[in-house]
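I have a small job for you when you get a moment. Would you make up a two-line entry for one protein for me to read? No commentary is needed, just the two lines. Write everything out right here, beneath this request.
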Amino acid sequence: MRVGVNTLFLIPREVGGTEIYVRSILPALLKARPGLDLILFTNRENHDSFAEFDRIAIDVAATSRPKRIVAEQRLLPRAAKKAGVDLLYSPGYTGPLRSPCPQIVTIHDTQFIDYPGDFGAASRFAQRVIVGIGARRASAITTVSEFSKERIADAFGAEEGKIFVAHSALSGIFKEPQPCEEEGPFLLFVSATYPHKNAARLVRAFDQIADRIPHTLIMVGQPRDGEPPAHPRVKRLHHIDYLKLVGLYQHADLVVLPSLYEGFGRTVPEAQEAGTRVIAADAAAIPEIGGDGATYFDGHSEEAIAESILDALDESENDRTRFLEAGIKNAERFTWTECASQTLAAFDHALAK
């Protein structure tokens, strides 16, 4: 099976969990099915970073979304046809609306429909058209949670039988002990500050209880439109080394994910694998992914966030141990081997169809 992989959307260090997904699923696919032939279609920004794979460069700068979309619709089908691929796999929401071969597309969530305020009008329109038509035309779809599967079927009218849940996964790195340069005690938030990530409400909730706890709030991620104002007890970190991030997870007293929308929400299982207590908003896919290894709060309420932080910090040692053990067990569900298995099932479905 010769599979073309559309990576035109991927700008290194800019697309967050989607980049982790792509860079992890590709070697897992090759390991799961020896003899699978992958050829990547790359852009100017990411071509060199995929040196371990067979790849064909498409001359487009993905930092210009309009140019990338045009290249995906016009240049990618030609390149796929010339390369003689049996399937075209697009793991970043969109693919060409006309393809010379069956297509599999990964739609991680329907955030642009459920939280449209995070996107400009032109971006919302383009995604509705391209993702919506692509979902209906694709021979198979993969997504990262049952929540997203239901939303894709509802939003786009895609057949549920062709939607495969291939959970995002963990590499095991979060359980390998790492040092931490930050002084404790601290709470940890990990995400770019898009509005739906709810960072500003978290900071306001933290401010309500800052005089009752000794902790600093460390926020890791790129500033976006939902960036909160500076706070004397909040430390902002932007780009940091991945192993340093692991160390932060492991040494935090509490990881907090107040996000109002996640198709997967990898912060929760990352914290669980690190052996750290985690609390999160009771929203979208988060409870599905976190299971009984986390506790959940109303992410729309500053008071609920503040109370949940205090409750987690004040809980008994037995309760804390119970949540940590449940979290570690829950995180073990998410393996790239299983993700690859479900993705290959989607490939086989597409070829059979």
Residues 80 and 329 are 41 Å apart (CA to CA).
